[in-house]
Design brief:
Blueprint (H helix, E strand, L loop, with lengths): L1 H6 L5 E2 L2 E2 L3 H4 L4 E7 L13 H12 L8 E7 L6 H15 L7 E9 L5 E12 L20 H23 L12
Antiparallel strand pairs: 1-2, 3-5, 4-6, 5-6
């Protein structure tokens, strides 16, 4: 389960068995994590890993070993961006590009700095994005065509992230403080 991996959670199991204990050994890299849901998400969507378990089961039920249950997106965070801005930068981006279009997104920020301030693990974000309809209804479990399902959608998402990085850098140069900025959606 990719969500457990990015959250560094070794206390869960999936149909293949328990997560490796070494996931927890890398918890020192975790700088923040959470679940972003659309405003109209049902209450059950906040229950642990339920969305991801449903997606895995739906993909498995197709009988196609290449069926996609979720997309794993990684985004490098420029080292020039202050760690205090990472969460605002990344979750605001995910909210604007994916969640407002109905996707559920598990996210995590990872980095690790050495004693000499060199990056042992460069700052980056992970997002696990639903690839299947996850709300109750006739379409539940079917692939969703609008959530980064094509190479063109993936290209646009990458371009939007590069723009977010450039905008964040410009805002920092202008002296704007993140503590006073709302999350943009």
């Amino acid at each position: 389960m990719h969500t457990a991996y990015i959250w560094r959670d070794s206390d869960v199991s999936d149909r293949f068995g328990p997560m490796p204990a070494r996931f927890a050994d890398r918890r020192c890299e975790l700088r923040g994590a959470g679940l972003l849901l659309p405003a109209n998400a049902p209450l059950w969507a906040t229950e642990g890993y339920r969305i991801w378990q449903d997606a895995d089961e739906a993909a498995f039920a197709t009988g196609d070993p290449t069926a996609v249950s979720a997309w794993h997106v990684m985004a490098q965070i420029p080292e020039t961006v202050s760690p205090s801005h990472w969460r605002w930068m990344f979750t605001g981006f995910l909210q604007r590009e994916l969640v407002r279009n109905g996707a559920a997104v598990a996210w995590a920020l990872h980095s690790l700095q050495g004693e000499s301030s060199d990056w042992l693990v460069s700052p980056h974000g992970h997002a696990i994005v639903t690839a299947r309809h996850w709300k109750a209804g006739a379409a539940k479990g079917q692939r969703h065509p609008a959530w980064i399902a094509s190479s063109e959608q993936q290209r646009r998402l990458g371009a939007a992230w590069r723009q977010r990085c450039a905008t964040t850098s410009l805002m920092a140069q202008a002296g704007l403080r993140w503590s006073t900025l709302p999350i943009m959606s």
